[in-house]
Amino acid sequence: MCLAIPSLIVEINGDMAVIDVDGVRRECSILMLESPKIGDYVIVHAGFALHIIDEADAMESLRLLREAAAIIGGDEPPLPDSSV
Questions:
Q1: Is residue 80 part of a domain?
Q2: 21 near 49, Cβ under 8 Å?
């Protein structure tokens, strides 16, 4: 199974980009994208940006991934108050 994490393009150098996820930066190829630009969110797999995604979708995906990581790490987010 593979997990695609939205990554923000912060730098472009020819056919390569520097991407950022929560302050962690790495390089990936942008050869498969049409007109990528700094500020785009992309889905990356095996070192290649596969497609550009909407910022709102990227933020929602990152939020869900953080929640899942908190649960796995034992820091479960509080459950909604059922008395309401």
A1: no
A2: no
Domain of 19, CATH number, reads 2.30.30.140
Please name which of 72, 52, 51, 66 lies closest in space to residue 21, comparing C-alpha atoms: 66
The verdict on residue 84 lying in a domain is: no
Beta strands in the chain (DSSP E): 6-13, 16-21, 24-29, 41-45, 48-53
User: pLDDT tens, 5-53?
Assistant: 899 999 999 999 999 998 999 999 999 999 999 999 999 988 999 999 9
> Which two tokens mark 74?
């034992």
pLDDT grade for 78, boundaries at 50, 70 and 90: low
